[in-house]
Write a structure and sequence with these properties.
By secondary structure, the chain is of the alpha+beta class. The chain has two domains: about 70 residues, VC0802-like; about 60 residues, ACT domain (Alpha-Beta Plaits). The chain is about 30% helix and about 40% strand. Strands 1, 2, 3, 4, 5, 6 and 7 form a seven-stranded antiparallel sheet that branches. It starts with a strand and ends with a strand.
Amino acid sequence: MAIKQISVFLENNAGRLGDVTRTLALAGISIRAISIADTADFGILRLVVDKCGEALQALNNGGFTTRVSDVVAVEIDDVPGSLARIMELFQRSNVNIEYLYASLKGVVRKAVVIFKLADHEKGLGIIKEHGFVMVEEI
């Protein structure tokens, strides 16, 4: 099971992140998880939103360069060692994690970790085999 993530490529200029969030707000889109990585010249904003298709349309109409990727959102307990446990499983199974970021979930003592895996299907198998809960939406 995968969820859709939108990557937005941004020039590293003041106000560009605000432009994206304003565009999504005007389109009635809620951001569920967000991460940004930057260099001196550009950034990659990664988003999980409530309405992916509408968000893509709004962003593309706003002149933003976007890409959609499949990611896996896994619910973990919000206690020490929960993330280490799933990381160890991926390491033992030789599944490369391209990147990850987290979001809090509206459930007490739970968090959601969003993984971009090099081998999506193998990673899904490991997650299922070890009883982790995959989240269809955040």
